[in-house]
Write a structure and sequence with these properties.
One of its GO terms (cellular component) is mitochondrion. It is found in: Mitochondrion. GO terms for molecular function: GTP binding; GTPase activity; translation initiation factor activity. This is Translation initiation factor IF-2, mitochondrial. With 472 residues, this protein is of the alpha/beta class. The chain contains twelve helices and 14 strands. The strands form three sheets. Strands 2-3-1-4-5-6 form a six-stranded mixed sheet, with helices on both faces. Strands 7-8-11-10-9-12 form a six-stranded antiparallel beta barrel. Helix 10 packs parallel to helix 11. The longest helix has 56 residues. The structure holds guanosine-5'-diphosphate. The site of guanosine-5'-diphosphate (GDP) has 15 residues, from helix 3.
Amino acid sequence: AKLLNVRLDTLQRKMVRAGMNDEASYDHILTAEWASLIAMEFGINPVVDDEAAFDIYPPAPAADSSTLPARPPVVTIMGHVDHGKTTLLDTLRSASVAKGEAGGITQHIGAFSVPVPGPDDDPKSERFITFLDTPGHAAFSAMRARGAGVTDIIVLVVAADDGIMPQTREVLELVKKEPDVGLVVAINKIDKAGADISKVEKALFAEGVQFESFGGDIPSVHVSGLTGQGLPQLVETISLIAELQDLRAERTGMVQGYVIESKIQKGLGAVATVLVSRGELTPGTHLIAGTAPGKVRLLTSPSGGPVKSVSPGTAAVVSGWKELPKAGDEVLSGSESEIKRAVANRLRKIEIETSLQDVEAINLVRREERERKEAEEEKDREETEKTVEKKDEKKGVEDYYQRGPGVGDVSESDVMRAKAAEGMVVAFSVKIPRPIEAMAASQGVQFLKSSVIYHLMDQVKERVIGLLPIKV
Ligand code: GDP
């Protein structure tokens, strides 16, 4: 009220009229939205400080992607516990080490790429498949929750000696909800005695899996993660599906990607495995992931070697973060100053959201307190009424006229007494405060009000006449 330079009751009346009933109480903390609305009611234009609200957003997808460069598919391996996901990934990962690379030991970084042998007529055209190397469901859910569909193909692993289990069904349910994600079924552990491939396939078919061999379009590959049997066929099948999906992405312009894993590493500080989805990530690039800013210092492959650049559909470990980004965070590039402003804005947003939650909690407590008080008052009032009613079985005009005269502004007790006597308040040359007026209205108590005594007398006379019996 002070800021708007109006009286408090004027402000409150405006607020109630604008539909802010709870908000119009004395002790309610207003949100910026409500405050702006009221300010506008008083003809003041609130200024939103949107310069500070600068943020970085991913570019819109290309209208025509058919001319963009191809990218490797991103594959997630899922399935029931103990059906062989880890073993399968380990075997595939060891195939990811390029021949001749020093050491040949691959580290777990959350993603790795496996080369796919090129077609016979062009054996040199090497392509890749990128496997997400994090516990399938967790990674997939984290990405989905943040709105990122990074997985192109799901490999559902089903142990040939065990068959359909609860998590197998979960994956099938999940695939149903993701029509753009391709599915390959890998019947695993075929080396094991007791493996019954056709039994498992029939059971899956009964669950609605339309296998190619039964006239559908879902491939089934028979593998052993342990012996490596069938893995070339698995890689080939994935690669065929990816070809049909025609996966392409910009290699120029802004970088967009997702944090697969992150940790603090001795000597390097905060590091994060980033899966690039568009653009080319190179050392020196300024990045933002959530509220963590960074400038790419080193890019490292799973075999620990430095990488010059990371293209869409592949991942590398990025060092140079000022803070630790979270798994699932979207990574975007920008200029140093853009990143700085975006971080400030995101931190401020979080702060505002947190304090808004606090405000809501405070307002709730206050409202409950008020309602409790009102209920108590209402009870008191009802009891007073009962007592008064007992005393005044017979009421004359005098009663109406005489009860409780006082001086000063009309008070709550004047209204209450008028109510108890089923009368009205006669206010001569005094003010009726707004809250009292509102209270009287809710109690059904009327006022006769004037600062000219004759007018008041006329009004009283009229009322008294109204009370007289009609002459027949
Ligand atoms: P996950 O829980 O799905 O990651 O399953 P694991 O990869 O940890 O495998 C569970 C158990 O099955 C381990 O003891 C593996 O050695 C074994 N296993 C996994 N794949 C195969 C396979 O192809 N053949 C055989 N015989 N055993 C396997």
